[in-house]
User: What shape does this take?
Amino acid sequence: MNIDALLLLMIVIWGTNYALVKSAFHEIDPQAFNALRLVLASVVMAATSHIARRTTLHDIFHTPAPVTRRDWVRLAWIGVVGHCFYQYLFIGGLARTSVANGALLVSATPIVITFLSTVTGQDRPGLLHWAGTLLSLLGIYIVVGHGAHVTEASLRGDVMLMGAVLCWALYTMGARSLMERHSPVGVTALSMLIGTMVYLPVAVPNLARLDWQSVSALTWLKLVYSAVFSICVAYTIWYAAVRAIGSARTAVYSNLMPIVAMLTGWVWLREPMDAAKVLGAAAVLAGVALARVRRAAGTVEAP
Assistant: This one.
């Protein structure tokens, strides 16, 4: 299977994950679901990275560079921000808002990364980048700020998702130096283990209230799918593609994710698909594409 086919598979996995996860919340508390998902994903990622040491796939899964004390400090920081805080806000926000809103808000992550890169001096985006930023912000307003389908609960969910986007942007920027010396999968596995250990105490009350016997086999399958495919498999495809064809070409495929998420939310959860949703989606996607014009290098998000 070529890299383009794998990227399309990745987008289907990430896009369908929104509706799949949200539907599981009918039987299991969101934060309890996420805690179990993170534990499973961490174990799989750590095992994959460990086993890969005996293979020839070092570029993608493992690199022999030693993890220094400074590396551990940075891994701890990005683990807490990028996996603990991000996951708490992402799952909490998704539980309170619609699949369409969630996918569109998360699709604006490259815009946040561009802004933070400019403020910190890591990047110097041009006029097209800022034009794309404004267009994407307009699209988000059309979807979540117009007021037609926004309640107090969904607005809180949208705000939480915006916080999740900020956390992922900080994680992406913070991991950049580590990615230069270590494999992306190795950095993700170690930072995820740290973030999961910090996250678990927060989710203990939710896990304690969980009625394990009431959770159906289908919901357990959704949890396994979300952990193994949405996190482990999709992350591996993403980083393999960045290594093979570069971040600019890989990033183009992420523009399809909100469309897949909205379609699955419409079909599976019967969420409304009105003109505002379509117009907002078009504006966000056009803005993200415009903001990435002539961007030859850099890191972008992964849901």
